[in-house]
Amino acid sequence: MNRATSILKVGLFSTLAAVLVACAATARPADTPAPAPAPAATERTPTTPETPPPGEPADEQAEPAGRQGRAGGAGQAPPQPRPYNRVITREAKTDDGIFKIHRIGERVFFEIPKAELGKDFLWVNQIKKTTLGVGYGGQALGRRVVRWERNGNRVLLRSISYAVVADPTTEIAEAVEASNYHPIILAFNIEAFGPDEAPVIDATRMFTSEVPEFSARQRLGARGFDPTRSFLEKTTSFPENINIEVTQTYTSPADAPAGGGGRGGRGAAPLPPSATVLMHYSMVKLPEKPMMPRLFDERVGYFSVAQYDYSLDVARAEQRRFITRYRLEKKDPTAALSEPVKQIVYYIDRATPAKWVPYMKAGVEKWQEAFEEAGFKNAIIAKMAPTAAEDPDFSPEDARYSVIRWLPSTTENASGPHINDPRTGEILESDIQFYHNVMNLGRNWYFVQVGPLDKRAGKLPLPDELMGKLIEYVAAHEVGHTLGFQHNMKASSTYTIEQVRDPAWVKKMGHTPTLMDYSRFNYVAQPEDGIDVEDLIPKIGPYDKWATMWGYAPIPGATTPDQEKPTLDKWARAQDTTPWLRFTTADAGSSDPGNLTEAVGDADAVEATRLGMKNLERVANMLLEATTYPGEPYNDLRELYGRMMSQWALEMNHVAQIVGAYNSQQKHGGQSGVRFELVPRARQAAAVRFLNDNAFTTPQFVIKPDLLRRMEPSGTMDRIQGAQTRVLNTLLSPDRFARLVEQAAVDKGDVYQPTQFLADLRSGIWREVFASSAPNVDAFRRNMQRAYLETFDTRIHAANTGDEMRALLKNELRTLDARLSAVQNSTSDAATRAHVRDARDQIERTLDPRVPRPAPAAGAAGGRGIGAGPR
Fold first, then answer.
1. Smallest Cα–Cα separation from 375: which of 414, 407, 333?
2. Nearest 5°: phi and psi at 339?
């Protein structure tokens, strides 16, 4: 999630997938060493408590359940601890690890070593299994740092925050502690003391009743929790962590709607009245010796954790941010290239179809070459998750393991969240979620973007070898997120059109400098360029290698984050001379056309889109043959035709982003020049001309009756108008227009005046009306002109439209109305004449303040959208 998202593009029970992709987006990196081999079965057999002391009878029964785990009320002293063997009886099945866990029937006791009191643990909640229609097994629900503390004859479980900190030796530390008093999640009576004064508590109610901090209710949209249908399943203790599995049952809201909204594409089905989930709780001890953190830098794309450190000698408290990364240490610190002390290991879920497993592993291990730039050999590997026979205690939900999960979902996505130590940013583990239908997304992208460049894509389905490569690409992108990397949308704009069409360049450098961009497949390349089909798919690029070096390479002699800062700054300045090492500029947003998603060669989006249109025309000619199967309906034809139209609008929108834009580079003090430079007027005006000639005219290559009448009896005109309207909305967004106004007022000089922009747009869309005194406008162009009027009406009456924009839009309509009045009676085409009259009526309604306007829909967002896809 900053978030990992990533490919590449978050009531019982709304789609848990969307909610959990958002968790991804807080990114859950991973830094787990290879897990130790599971102990032999004989080493984990339940043990019985020690024999009671002579003269004291053994208690065959633990204290009744009503007494256990309850703290005394106000003014009421807690019950006194009892002899150990009267609480942990001979019936107890004991598992020894970081805590001793004792199971007695339906109850679970924790025996907490005295040495572990006051220590920090990470508590991780996950759904292991779920009711159909209520999320997916393997999805995360939350994590928090917890600490066990003894308070007299009670044990308190506290939730720990590191949002504000201070050096304990400084004066302000006392005030920071007073302002960050950690809340108590639960209080437990101490039932007995084990050896070395280890308190024993009855922890059963943590799992079989609803604890708000651990509850799945909110995420499931549930109404209630039913303890009578909730019970412990499995408890396991290891040297570093404990795992608890518990069946919990939640009830749905009484007014929950029927249907499949938010179900991850499983189809419309009645919502279940109850949902039973198998919850997995994993509590892992945070490192006793925290990793030395590395300071975050906006010039390099890492996720980060933030703290306010009030012990710093600065006048204003500021957030101190550290990058998230695995703890990698060299076995041989003197070697330029060394094996790590602990490898980064990803386990492939055994639910993954066997034929895709090698590609999943390859996607993980692609990153080895990036880590070599940081001085580590074989830093990251993939393994198949062990079977129950191989390791009965292995659990994909265990917070020590990083796992790639294959989920049975029609959602077309994948995500790569990670879990980190909030003190330092150290990645502890990750769980990549790979939704089954991301394969369909990859297939459609590949066919629509580069189908004409690869003969293997001439007939669907794609061959397994090619589909495997697409899966490998998605996996590698998501692994990148779990290693700590954000998306870098800037990357694709740092190569020229000539470079992305050069076979030698693309072989060595890729068509984008990073796997972490949303630059899917090289749609700029043309068949005559001779690009190897293996090089149409993104690969580990120069930015990936450089950024891995920046974040992971040891810096000799540095023992504090501040001592590393001069070296990190020097490394970051390589971006001044090597553009493809640059990261998305902070604060730039959509103002920089180089930050475009789903783009290739967007340093020159006009030329990239011109070439992309040539490939799309080839795609249109391939569609029928590629998607026709004897005896089958035309479902793929319909789907891929729609994807083709979406790609058309996507690429046209890349051109629209040039208007009112700035080129940017993230810079810090000591680097020359400004961060934002105005895109020249000539380039902005050329973008509008291109759109007038290509987007707002009719794309004839998509009008193929032989295709269309296999799909539907009508709808083509609406589909084309819808795509054109998307582009027009982008071009006329209030933010873009506000930048044009400010450029004219602040940047001055050779700027693209807002009035000239609107005049250019009007003269292109209404070309027939202004070019002839007797215009003849065909049906497709009439649709485009109606879209223009409707967009103006929406903008003029929208609350987020600035006064300057509103005034200039109204003036444009008055200018257009005067011209329409002049030609209204001169055209001989009846349909055009009716259209002109109707257009004038629409202008009159738009300009008349007395015309009632419908209230905007709740949550309306003003004409912006986000592309879908792996995050």
1. 333
2. -65, 150
